[in-house]
Amino acid sequence: MSKLIIEGRRKLSGKIEVQGAKNSALPILAATLLTGDSSVIHNCPDLSDVDSTLDILRYVGCYVKQDGDTVFVDSKCADKSDIPDELMRAMRSSIIFLGPLIARFGSARLTYPGGCELGPRPIDLHLMALRLLGVEITEQHGVIECRAPQGLHGAKISLSFPSVGATENIMLAACVAEGTTIITNAAREPEICDLADCLNSFGARISGAGEGTVIIDGAERLSGSMHTIIPDRIAAASYMAAAAATGGRVLIDRIVPSHLNSVIPIFEESGCTVKQKGNSILIDAPNRLHAVNFIRTMPFPGFPTDAQPPIMAMLTTAKGTGIIVENIFENRYKHVCGLERMGAKIHLEGKVAVVEGVPELYGARVAAPDLRGGAALVVAGLCANGRTEINGINFIDRGYENIELKLSEVGASIKRL
Ligand code: UD1
Asked: According to DSSP H, which parts of 332-399 are helical?
């Protein structure tokens, strides 16, 4: 098992180019199944979750070729509508194939993606919405069987929570359904807009993505096209946290700064200067950060839950005490244990974390508990005194492309063993 070894307390300085968005890449690659044609996807990040998505596409019969960050998918010969358990379990977000499989084959058979490191991750909203679109669903022994004997038809779907995955699955299924689908209380994340842009380039007719109401006029068929994935705003926020935690000065490049509108004020409140220029942000941090009063994770455009762990790590050595409220996932404080091992003072009470800044962290042997929790430990290791060993980095590889290379290039001492 590989691990990361970090010698901390080096100020980061230089430029980090941010990868394409993982959370866009997965639904967009699944969308290529709808076309029965060839599609070219650019700026696709090199991540294990992307590999798992491509494994599923290959399993169902697609031809897949990778050339750098470009992925070519030909779904003409796809002929399987099931996903075996081991492929479902490789990646929690494999549920995103449900919509495309039903839309393409009129049926789908897959297993529950399983329990999750972030706590229970129900898919009731996905299934409720698909039923409204005409899908008959049975669930037995962890297997989900879906059939649409009369085909898919448009529906009015109101989500009780703006779930990202459910909004995506509805868009993926409804874009080739008969008639119009209207989603109210839809998720508004930039990755929803990216998926809509990609589907529209395939010939779908989706409007309102990025707003609370998304309207999908079913198209008879889609055809292949070319799409470029948006930059990964969570990777960007994580690298900003790394720069800030080390008192560094780093240009975060190849991003969409407006996607970070809820994150930038947190850095400013902590004492950093943040300058936006074109598709980059220059973050310049003081020697010691100030505590940030309140951070509440919310659906977009609120503060993203995925950025909470690395930003919490950055605040462990800030001057003063701050409060974080995690409103999206029940179990998203697993990184706290590792941070405490490194000397952080954090008090947890349900969804509230009180972070009492300490003058410094010290290196320790820790294990990544999940993807963003792993990124939190990297941020902590970069500012800690001494050597940090992070195990379980397969979690980190799910979402950060070449993390040790990108951080080494800006002066960190970090290597993979
Ligand atoms: C996506 C992101 C993930 C991010 C999350 C919230 C991908 C691959 N993953 O996950 O990185 O942290 O959005 O921004 O894009 N829920 C239900 N029933 C459902 C679906 C969701 O109750 O059927 C609840 C979940 O338990 C959770 C909340 O809704 O509490 C948000 O989940 P959701 O927005 O669906 O997240 P994902 O799409 O799984």
From this structure: 335-341, 371-383, 394-397
Q: Are residues 249 and 209 in the same domain?
A: no
Task: Give pLDDT tens digits for 343-381.
Answer: 999 999 999 999 999 999 999 999 999 999 999 999 999
Assess whether the previous peptide bond of 120 is cis (omega < 30° from 0): no
Domain count, the chain: 2
Q: Cβ(197) to ligand 1 under 6 A?
A: no
C-alpha of residue 163 to centroid of ligand 1, in Å: 5
- Residue in 45, 57, 96, 30 with CA at minimum distance from that of residue 228: 45
Residues 262 and 129 occupy one common structural domain: no
Q: Write out the residue range of the structural domain in which residue 264 sits.
A: 4-19+232-416
Residue 348 belongs to a domain with what CATH number? Answer: 3.65.10.10
Q: Which of 189, 206, 228 is the last residue in one of the domains? A: 228
Count how many residues are written for the chain.
417
Q: How many CB atoms lie within 10 A of CB 184?
A: 13
The reply to whether ligand 1 has any atom less than 6 angstroms from the CB of 326 is no
Q: Which residue has the tokens 């109210």?
A: 184
Q: Which of 161, 183, 370 to mutate to test the pocket of ligand 1 (most atoms within 8 A of CB)?
A: 161
